[in-house]
Amino acid sequence: MTGADDTPVYLAADCGGSNCRVRLYDQDGTMLCEGHGGPANASLGLNAVLSEIFRATRNALSKLDGLSIPLSRLHAGFAMAGLVEAERREEFLRVTHPFASMTAETDAFVAQLGAFAGGDGGLLITGTGSCAFAVQGDEKFYIGGWGFPVSDQGSGARLGHLAVRRALQAYDDILPSSPFCKKLLSEVGAHPAEVSCWARTARPVDYGAFAGLVIEYAEKEDEVAKSLVRTIAEEVNQLIRALVRRDVKEIHHVGGLAEPIRPWLDKAHGRYVAQPRGDVFDGALRLINNRTGLINKTGTVRS
Question: Which of 168, 148, 170 is nearest to 159 (CA)?
Answer without folding.
Answer: 148
